[in-house]
Specification:
Layout: H1 2-18, H2 27-40, H3 43-62, H4 67-73, H5 80-94
Length: 95
């Protein structure tokens, strides 16, 4: 369970130096998945959360849309609950 933690830490490092808080977008969802998985001791979901976080970090560091972000935008981002959650998190972090 060490490698997902390393990826999560790397994602946080990328964001600290590459994007303002209000641009963290799907990083929030990855962090939430990772933290819940950490509490439930679920390695598969720790990996999923860490990969989502690192994907968003690399997207901001390189300034290119990632394949995972494209998939997200064309799938679950269209769900009203997910969209409202993202908007709420964006407002919270923009303060």
């Amino acid at each position: 369970m060490m490698w997902p933690t390393v990826l999560a830490a790397l994602a946080i490092f990328l964001f600290v130096f590459s994007a303002p808080l209000e641009e963290w977008h799907h990083f929030y969802i990855g962090a939430l998945i990772y933290l819940v998985a950490l509490l439930c001791l679920s390695p598969a979901f720790m990996w999923l959360g860490a990969l989502v976080m690192i994907d968003d970090g690399l997207q901001h560091a390189t300034k290119h849309q990632s394949p995972l972000n494209w998939l997200y935008q064309h799938s679950i981002a269209r769900i009203s609950l997910i969209r409202r959650l993202n908007e709420w998190l964006d407002r919270m972090m923009a303060r």
